[in-house]
Design goal:
Layout: H1 2-17, E1 26-29, E2 33-36, H2 50-62, H3 66-79, H4 86-99, H5 103-116, H6 123-138, E3 143-145, E4 149-152, H7 155-168, H8 175-188, H9 192-205, H10 210-228, H11 235-251, H12 258-285, H13 289-302, H14 307-331
Antiparallel strand pairs: 1-2, 3-4
Length: about 325
């Protein structure tokens, strides 16, 4: 038994001392870190010159090998950051992430490209691709946890993306639509104040583009309208909606939505009249005749043809004789 163990030990010792080729799928390169390399392909994508390295990245991208294209493009950026090939490598890096459906990473890489190389040839395309990514999230695409696991949709994060698109190119081909989409993102997040600000910015900034300005102003009115129709009817929001729709009609009277805007104004005024009528009744029930008269008169000013106007007129006539005695009594109090 002892002899058998002795020979087993000798064999193990010899095995440890004998060099054996071992596949190394993980390769460490100073300045580049760890990269995965399939057995037999170690370093085949590496080139000694920036141009050749970029060509390798292009070729990999064209054949759909985005893993290799990513590594090759990243190596151009790290090894030759000041070369003429770095801008295209950065753009190609973002394209790879987009093709791999890693939209958040792609957006960030496009942002780096725009910030580092603002005069590069592909800046306009990068802006368009950023906007397309933001639209996907605006339409409900989920953000990913750690870049891989679909986790949740977020209009707040989508708005941050759209803000960057607008800052990158306010007067680019996508600038006006991105500003409008920013308002939509805030609306979906139920932040109507920020939505209105986004729409009003679009209306002011792109006043020379009537189709954009008209759309912006109409959407601003609709945002106030939505806020006015919340659970507790918001009279101030209703007033702002009426003001915006009134401006819309003054500036764009021939817009196809003009009739809708007029109807919204009428509905809002009718609702405001109802609200003031109810407040007037509250004051009347509490025998505060002067306060009641103020709100009944407001009903007539807001919508003299509403169903509440006729009743408001009748109550005003009934309350007028009571107001003077009440005022006299109040003035005689010590």
């Amino acid at each position: 038994m002892k002899r058998a163990l002795f020979w087993v030990g000798c064999l193990l010792w010899v095995g440890l001392l004998t060099p054996t080729p071992v596949p190394a799928p993980l390769i460490y390169t100073p300045g580049e870190g760890w990269t995965y390399e399939p057995v037999g392909e170690e370093g085949k994508w590496r080139r000694a010159r920036a141009k050749d390295q970029l060509d390798a990245a292009r070729e990999a991208f064209e054949r759909g090998d985005y893993r290799v294209a990513l590594k090759a493009a990243r190596r151009v950026i790290r090894q030759w950051p000041l070369s003429d090939y770095a801008p295209e490598a950065q753009f190609l890096l973002a394209r790879c992430y987009e093709e791999r459906k890693q939209d958040e990473k792609a957006f960030r890489e496009y942002q780096k490209f725009i910030e580092k190389y603002p005069r590069a040839e592909q800046v306009e395309e990068a802006l368009q691709r950023q906007y397309a990514i933001a639209l996907r999230f605006l339409n409900g695409q989920w953000f990913k946890l750690w870049g891989y696991i679909p986790f949740f949709p977020s209009m707040t994060k989508t708005a941050e993306m759209l803000e960057k698109v607008v800052r990158n190119g306010p007067f680019s081909s996508v600038g006006p639509r991105a500003q409008l989409s920013l308002g939509t993102a805030y609306e979906k997040a139920r932040d109507y104040d920020l939505a209105v600000k986004a729409y009003e910015t679009a209306a002011d900034r792109y006043f020379g583009q009537p189709e954009v300005a008209a759309e912006s102003l109409y959407r601003a009115g609709m945002a106030w309208l939505k806020q006015a129709r919340t659970a507790e009817y918001d009279q101030s929001a209703a007033g702002k909606a009426i003001a915006v729709f009134t401006d819309f009609l003054a500036l764009y009277p021939n817009d196809p939505r003009a009739a809708e805007a007029r109807q919204h104004i009428a509905d809002l005024k009718r609702e405001q009249a109802r609200g003031n009528f109810e407040i007037g009744r509250f004051y009347e029930r509490n025998r505060q005749w002067a306060g009641a008269l103020i709100y009944y008169n407001e009903v007539l000013l807001l919508d003299p043809t509403s169903p509440y106007a006729e009743e408001a007129r009748r109550r005003i006539e009934q309350l007028k004789p009571r107001v003077r005695p009440q005022e006299t009594a109040n003035s005689n109090r010590p």
